Amino acid sequence: MLVFIIGTGRCGSTLVQELLCRHPDIGFLSNLEDRARLLPTGAGRFNNQLYQRVAPSMTRKGRLRFAPSEGYRALAREVSPMVTESFRDLMASDAMPWVAERFRAFFTSRARAQGKPVFLHKYTGWPRSGFIREIFPDARFINITRDGRAVVASALRTSWWTGHLGPEAWQWGPLPPAYAADWEASGRSFPVLAAQCWKILMDAFADARELVPADQWIDVRFEDVLADPHGRFKEMLAFAGLDEHPALHAALAKIALSPDRQHDYRRQLDPASIDLVEHSLAAHLAAWGYETSPA
Question: Which CATH number fits domain 2-156+209-259: 1.10.10.10, 3.40.50.300, 3.30.230.10, 3.40.50.410?
């Protein structure tokens, strides 16, 4: 079974992916396969076994490490930059025979080599579920959502957020007229522009969810993962057709997941920016189950 973890980015999906991949029945693409051009497709045959044995210090971001990957370099090389850098969501109509054949081969060859009941891949940014389901009709999707205010604060601090160059230079296409007016009214605030990006993506996820059968899509709030990790991971494993496993419990026991993280944005953004962002995101926050009352 193919399972895709999807989300806007900066939504907690990396944590979810890396913990789920501790389950011995889950295969995945590693960052070594992503970076190395000359590795054969079957090089990841023992990814899961290796991941279980590598010291936790060798799996953390910010250093030389071994971990699951979104594989953007490998996907661009072996499939097309279209599936990694599109300015809009990918639809079923984008699955032209040539790209569908490459995309299918990319995942089926790796899943076959690893021989696990589930092959899990994380794909953030656009949902791309229409494109994926055209090629893999039975694929399942775990959509990780996070409070838009937290996503805004996190995105602004990354090296890859290009909103500081304006929407003409970023990868999310033109602002819809209403969103452009919202940004202009804020004095072209960078936090408000990041908020427009979150709204654009969440609009795409709402549309994509309507086109996927209910038993192939699940929404998981990152805040709920922080508050009840065992419950939420049990839910996600069941969705993927897997039982709980001691290896995942052991991995959860080694990390600190605090619900207080959901309010970090209040320390990372100034009060004026928070007010502007909350005003801009109010309707979308409510639609996805987030309150805007003061913490």
Answer: 3.40.50.300
For the chain, where are the E strands, in sequence order? Answer: 2-7, 26-27, 118-124, 140-145, 217-221
pLDDT tens digits in sequence order for the chain, 295 residues long:
999 999 999 999 999 999 999 999 999 999 999 988 877 777 889 999 999 988 766 666 666 689 999 999 999 999 999 999 999 999 999 999 999 999 999 999 999 999 999 999 999 999 999 999 999 999 999 999 999 999 999 999 999 899 999 999 999 999 999 999 999 999 999 999 999 999 999 999 999 999 999 999 999 999 999 999 999 999 999 999 999 999 999 999 988 888 877 889 999 999 999 999 999 999 999 999 998 865 4
Establish how many alpha carbons lie within 13 A of residue 30's alpha carbon, considering only the half-sphere containing its beta carbon: 26
Encoded tokens for 173? 């296409």
Rounded to whole angstroms, the Cα distance separating 33 from 45 reads: 11
Cβ neighbours of residue 231 under 8 Å, at least 6 residues apart? none
**Per-residue b or e along 181-199, where b marks 16 or more CB atoms closer than 10 Å to that residue's CB:** ebbeebeebbbbbbbbbbb
DSSP calls for 24-46:
TTEE--BHHHHH-TT--GGGGTT
**CA–CA distance, 266 with 261 (Å, rounded to integer):** 10
Q: Which residues contact 136 (CB under 8 A, 6 or more apart)?
A: 2, 104, 107
199/205 Cα distance (integer angstroms): 10
pTM of the predicted model, to two decimals? 0.95
- The position carrying tokens 């090089």 is 43
